[in-house]
Automatic annotation (TrEMBL):
Entry keywords, A to Z: Cell membrane, Membrane, Transmembrane, Transmembrane helix, Transport
Protein name: MFS transporter
InterPro entries in alphabetical order: MFS_trans_sf (IPR036259), TM_effector (IPR010290)
Lipid bilayer topology: Multi-pass membrane protein
Keyword ATP-binding appears in the UniProt entry: no
Subcellular locations according to the entry: Cell membrane
């Protein structure tokens, strides 16, 4: 295939990939909104809500290393398509249960576990395939368009979920998700995942045993200072962000008694903040010092975490609380893109294509490893202690972790050109001697 045809095909991938993500993400997030609201209203317990979050986190944490092995050794396209088919079947199973015996927490938790497993295989395969789907010059554009599609879905789905919740049955939410997932299967099956790939599928006799392959991935990571830094930040920051994951819904729904429509709109504001920054990154040139930019993004997230609990501590006019949380969620969405996009682009370019599945799966595992513990811990803490103090202490630790792990000496190690630039400027200062 000549270069012009490859570029045309890559452009097709950009938009097919974006539309596929938009459709599947919209269905997934409408479903997630409805299920979360259903659990909180049915039980009134932060612990039950946290248990569903754990079912979304724990299986993917345990399965991620195996997903990396599969993605590096088998067809990435087949992994993506089969995972999406499995998602469709899982939702179909829950729909059948709702018709026959009614929804129960057990059925919801089981479905959440299955969806968690399919998402990790699909997510690792897609992330590892970006450099095979599009040319290098448009990797940041691809990552940004991907995030934009998720953001569009995040903006619309909570609003749709909030308006529909209580007006239609839970079966309707499940049917929407099934239809969206089926359309995503069709789109993904038309993509060429090896358009720009630098290596062919590993032959059967060349495949490493599972544990040896995982070991090779860890050895590769240890040689990359950027990867080691990102892993430690992801491990601790994601654990502490559990305070926000559990606390946000608990505070707004249980403590402030916010209506489902308003809550849905605040969730949509988070996606709007992500969307605005994703559009910005899709048109601007590549970030020069991604770890430094991500550091400030995480600090911004810590500030938002602290601000979340102010309405519990200060008297706010009733009409202003909704607007306040809209603004906060816009800021948090923007900060999350500032944190994630620059790092993901540089990782796409620096990681050897033969190791991408294992590396991204290990990053996924480390990012999620302490989150189930965090969900359990914070679910218990919010049921026992005042929410404002839990969030303030967690936010302080959140910011403290990034200040230590991404201290100036670490930043200079990952981006030595920062130190070199300072040295040049010092050298140019004329001497008075």
């Amino acid at each position: 295939m000549n270069e012009a045809l490859k570029l045309k095909r890559a452009t097709y991938h950009l938009w097919t990939f974006t539309v596929s993500k938009l459709i599947s993400a919209f269905g997934a997030q409408v479903y997630a909104f409805a299920i979360s609201f259903y659990i909180l209203q049915a039980t009134g317990s932060a612990t039950s809500f946290a248990a569903n979050l754990i079912c979304n986190i724990l299986p993917r944490t345990l399965a991620a290393p195996f997903a990396g092995y599969i993605v590096d050794n088998y067809s990435r396209k087949k992994v993506v398509v089969f995972s999406q088919i499995a998602t469709t079947l899982a939702i179909g199973g829950l729909l059948l249960v709702s018709f026959t015996s009614g929804l129960s927490l057990t059925a919801i938790y089981t479905t959440s576990c299955v969806l968690s497993l399919t998402s990790v295989f699909s997510g690792v395969a897609f992330t590892s395939s970006i450099t095979g789907l599009v040319d290098k010059q448009r990797i940041q554009k691809a990552m940004s368009l991907n995030q934009m599609s998720i953001s569009f879905a995040s903006i619309g789905s909570p609003a749709v979920g909030g308006l529909l919740y209580g007006a239609v049955s839970m079966s309707t939410f499940l049917i929407i998700y099934m239809a969206a997932s089926s359309m995503a299967v069709i789109l993904e099956s038309t993509m060429n995942f090896k358009l720009y790939t630098s290596h062919d599928l590993v032959e059967e006799d060349e495949k490493e045993p599972l544990w040896q392959s995982m070991k090779s991935g860890f050895i590769y990571i240890k040689t990359q200072s950027l990867l080691m830094t990102v892993i430690w930040i992801a491990l601790l920051v994601n654990f502490l962000f559990g305070a926000y994951e559990v606390g946000y819904s608990f505070i707004l729904i249980e403590k402030l008694k916010m209506a489902s429509q308003q809550f849905g709109l605040t969730e949509g504001a988070f996606a709007a903040g992500m969307l605005l920054l994703s559009i910005y990154y899709s048109v601007r040139k590549e970030v020069k010092y991604p770890l430094l930019v991500s550091k400030w993004g995480i600090i911004g997230m810590g500030v938002v975490m602290t601000a979340l609990v102010l309405p519990l501590m200060l008297k706010f006019p009733n009409h202003s609380i909704f607007v306040y949380y809209i603004v906060l969620q816009l800021g948090l969405g923007a900060a999350s893109i500032i944190t994630n996009t620059p790092i993901m682009v540089i990782l796409q370019k620096q990681i050897d294509d033969r190791f991408k599945g294992r590396v991204f799966s290990i990053l996924e595992t480390m990012a999620m490893a302490l989150m189930p513990l965090g969900m359990v811990l914070y679910g218990f803490l919010y049921d026992v202690f005042p929410a404002q103090w839990i969030m303030i202490v967690s936010a302080a630790l959140f910011v403290g972790v990034i200040l230590v792990l991404a201290r100036p000496s670490v930043i200079r190690k990952v981006h030595p050109e920062i130190g070199a630039g300072k040295a040049v400027r010092i050298k140019k200062v004329p001497s008075n001697v």
